[in-house]
């Protein structure tokens, strides 16, 4: 029995340099899970330019970035406020301060948090993982958790486990 009648609203925060969002969405769709996914703007140029494009150009780079960050924050905060669950991906490359901020924001809101990252990031992310209710290593594991939450079903792909 589904525990969540309307679609579960899942916000996908973090790393933008891989296909993890698409893998998660495809797997969820294949399993017929009633989930609505939201995310930040993942196109770097659009994200960087949104403040200047909507509110006017800034001659000083600091203020241009500041304006863009605030416009992006309107979207991010609104979607985090609406989320039933937040998934935060920490990828292999780059320092992902936005991902850490989103994880902290979700935790402060009391929104269930799932982190997604490789094992080698365990030490660096120990505090964030401490706030998470699940730590996954692959998008498919995230979908396993979401399927259990929504359908109460264990993953059938695990030998000896499933419904």
General description of the model:
The protein is of the alpha/beta class and 163 residues long. It has a domain at 8-40 and 83-151: Response regulator (Rossmann fold). It is built from six helices and five strands. Strands 2-1-3-4-5 form a five-stranded parallel sheet, with helices on both faces. Strand 4 (113-116), helix 5 and strand 5 (134-136) form a beta-alpha-beta unit. Helix 1 packs parallel to helix 6. The chain is globular, with a radius of gyration of 17 Å. It starts with 7 loop residues before the first strand and ends in a 12-residue tail after the last helix.
Descriptive labels:
163 residues, five-stranded parallel beta sheet, 47% helix, globular
């Amino acid at each position: 029995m589904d525990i969540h009648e309307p679609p579960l609203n899942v916000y996908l925060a973090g790393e933008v340099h891989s296909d993890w969002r698409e893998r998660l969405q495809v797997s969820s769709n294949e399993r017929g899970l009633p989930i609505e996914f939201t995310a930040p703007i993942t196109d770097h140029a659009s994200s960087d330019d949104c403040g200047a494009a909507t509110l006017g150009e800034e001659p000083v780079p600091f203020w241009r970035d500041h304006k863009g960050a605030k416009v992006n924050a309107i979207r991010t905060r609104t979607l985090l406020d609406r989320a039933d669950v937040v998934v935060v991906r920490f990828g292999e490359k780059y320092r992902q301060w936005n991902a850490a901020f989103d994880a902290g924001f979700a935790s402060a809101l009391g929104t269930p948090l799932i982190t997604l990252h490789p094992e080698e990031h365990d030490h660096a992310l120990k505090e964030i993982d401490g706030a998470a209710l699940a730590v996954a290593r692959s998008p498919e594991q995230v979908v396993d958790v979401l399927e259990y939450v929504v359908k109460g079903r264990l993953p059938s792909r695990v030998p000896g486990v499933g419904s």
